[in-house]
Each structure stands twice: as C-alpha cells, then as structure tokens.
From TrEMBL:
Single GO biological process annotation from the record: endocytic recycling
Gene symbol of the encoding locus: CMTM6
Start and end residues of each MARVEL domain: 33-160
Lineage of producing organism: Eukaryota, Metazoa, Chordata, Craniata, Vertebrata
Organism expressing this protein natively: Ictidomys tridecemlineatus (Thirteen-lined ground squirrel)
Protein name listed in UniProt: CKLF like MARVEL transmembrane domain containing 6
Keywords associated with the record: Membrane, Transmembrane, Transmembrane helix
C-alpha cells in the first residue's frame, strides 16, 4: 500500500497564509482585554503624548528653559509608559503575569502620569515664549493629561462597580441573640 493512500483521508493541507484565524504577529496581538472606551483612551494617551513630545522637540530657542525641559521629560516618559502598558495589555505578557498586579500598576501609573503631565503643562504655560510649536505642545500636553485622568476615572468607576457587586448583602437575624444555641 502506498503512503499517500493511508494518510490522505485523515490529514489536511497546510492552510498557508491566506487561511486560518490569525497568523504571524496578529496571533500575538489582541485588544480584547480592554473595553472599547479604555482602548480609545489608551490610544489617545499614546498619540497625544507623542505629539506633545514631537512639538516640544521642534522648539529651537527658549528664554526660561526649565519648564521646557521638564515638559520634555514628562511627555517622553508618558509616551513610553503608555506604550508599555498598551503592549502588556495587548500581548501574551498579560497572561504570564498576575492580572490584578497589571490592573493595579495601570491604575497608579495612569493617575501619576496624568497629574505630573498636567503639572508639567501648567509649568510650561508659565515659562513658554509664545511660539507656535510651544503652543501646540502645550495644547497636546493638556489634552494628553486629561486623557490620562479620564482613564483613571474610568478605572476608578470600574473598581467601585466591582466592589459593589462583591459586597455581600447585610443579612441580620431578627431573632433574639440572647437565646442559648443548644436550646
């Protein structure tokens, strides 16, 4: 008997690149772990912090450079932290670490980044030289900081809803508690 006759009814051809649910990089990348509104907020955080950083890098001269340098550091850090969190949520790394630790880290990183980005934007407003690149950087900085704070608010709302669902009902006995247990 030929080998082809034995194996042909039970084996399947190689699906190739056109067939199959997901292949390559797409098999490792999933946005399904975050609700749609959190995906939008994370994407806006990433985009707006990058735009703030790029606009700040275009500034060629400054009179009071301390605010510019602080804004540069914060906008670059915010971009990298939001990229890191998005990578963790969207790759198999999320399955390898404790989910509660990822969510807790995201909660505090988002709050801290939003507050510091807002502070850096306020400081940059008070020290800028009114060039168009600085004004654009400030606008993107404020928008990015608000996206971080909105995301924090969404996570806080989710935490409060989860705690309300987990809270057991308060069932008290109407009977007298002075009765003996073995009576």
């Amino acid at each position: 008997m030929e080998n082809g006759a034995v194996y042909s009814p039970t084996t399947e051809e190689d699906p190739g690149p056109a067939r199959g649910a997901r292949s390559g990089l797409a098999a490792c990348f999933s946005l399904a772990r975050l609700p749609w509104y959190r995906r939008v907020l994370k994407g806006l955080q990433l985009l707006l912090s990058l735009l703030a950083f790029i606009c700040e890098e275009v500034v060629s001269q400054c009179t009071l450079c301390g605010g510019l340098y602080f804004f540069e550091f914060v906008s670059c850090s915010a971009f990298l932290l939001s990229l890191l969190l998005l990578i963790v949520y969207c790759t198999p790394v999320y399955d390898r670490v404790d989910n509660t630790k990822v969510k807790s880290s995201d909660f505090y990183i988002t709050l801290g980044t939003g507050c510091v980005f807002l502070l850096a934007s306020i400081i940059f407003v008070s020290t800028h030289d009114r060039t168009s690149a600085e004004i654009a950087a400030i606008a993107f900085g404020f928008l990015a900081s608000f996206m971080f704070l909105f995301d924090f608010g969404a996570m806080l709302f989710e935490k409060l809803q989860e705690s309300q669902l987990r809270k057991p009902e308060n069932t008290t006995r109407a009977e007298a508690l002075t009765e003996p247990l073995n009576a």
